[in-house]
Amino acid sequence: MTSENLISDISLFDVKINSQTTWRHVQLTTNEGLTGLGEATLHDTGPEFPERLLETGQSLKQKQPDIRVLDPLCLQEGGLACRTILSAYDQAICDLKAQIAGQPLHAFLGAKPLDASLSLYANINRATGSRNPENFADNARCAADNGFQAIKIAPFDGLDPTICDTEKGRDLIDAGIARIKATRKAVPDRELMVDCHWRLTPKAAFTILPELQDAGVTWFECPLPENAEAIPDLRLLRQDANRRGIRLCGLETAGTWTDIAPFIEGETYDLIMPDVKHACGLQNILDIGSKAKNLGVGISLHNPTGPVAHLFSAHVMAALGSRERMEIQWNESPIFFDLIDPAPVITTGTCRPTDTPGLGAVMPNGAEYRRHHVDS
Fold first, then answer.
1. Is residue 364 part of a domain?
2. Which of 279-305 are b and which e, b meaning 16 or more Cβ less than 10 Å from the residue's Cβ?
3. Banded pLDDT at 4 (limits 50, 70, 90)
4. pTM strictly above 0.85
5. CATH number at residue 257
């Protein structure tokens, strides 16, 4: 084995954004001085997750970058946390391998030369601290003023399927509809997208579809819990939504084609939303995208977190050749533009993957940043 570019060090960097959000990253360093980044942000993890993340990576030390070293270890238990660990190290390894090859990551992944920038949609949910309809409207208007042609909100606070069909649930749905209407009034010329975070029952989802249609909603995301029992209802819901000019979208936490295939074969979604942080590797997303496309289903990468996952998503979207808009968590924190060097460039609601080798960005002061924003 050659001694060049063996992984010599593994670091974790947590950056606390606010009371709800912490962005978590891994960094692999080689004995030749290259660094590869990956994002492992996962909400609602226990205190043992960072330890598992760091411990898992130890098997990479003194080896050339190769995700196969981790594959059996990470997938032994399965589940979202294990897939997030695997995905973070896969990102960092792909970053290193593309640098070693002297190629931008999107080219390393097989992208054709880009003929256009990637379109983004602004997820304004976490920027909207006050949840009254006026605050949704103000943030939507601001995102539109910044050039975004599509805006997504998650309006159904406090709702879950156990109360959805009760009087309390209807009150929460009515509050969500009021937020949707206020947002539409604020941005009458923008595409409006609604994320439900699996909070609805079939009855509730079918009931609100006419109201979504009246508000000009074009994207209906994760309405029902995503399990095998929901597939027949999702198929019927998609048919009704499509008749109203609305696309049904989901599967943001899915990991492999085995997870995704039953939903696509069941004709549940117009568009699937893998996330580079959870989908078991960048090449796996490309494989999923190719299979989905062959079955008439689109792909738009999900990313409501930090700039590292944003850049990886841009490279993968370019490699997929997808013309769908890509998610960006708009205006949650200015740290999005401070954490990595160079900072992400967002121009009138669009971005482009970097043209320098690898991911095209580093975290030069990660340890100091962590101390300042987390430990203090």
1. no
2. bbbbebbbebbeebeeeebbbbbbbbb
3. confident
4. yes
5. 3.20.20.120
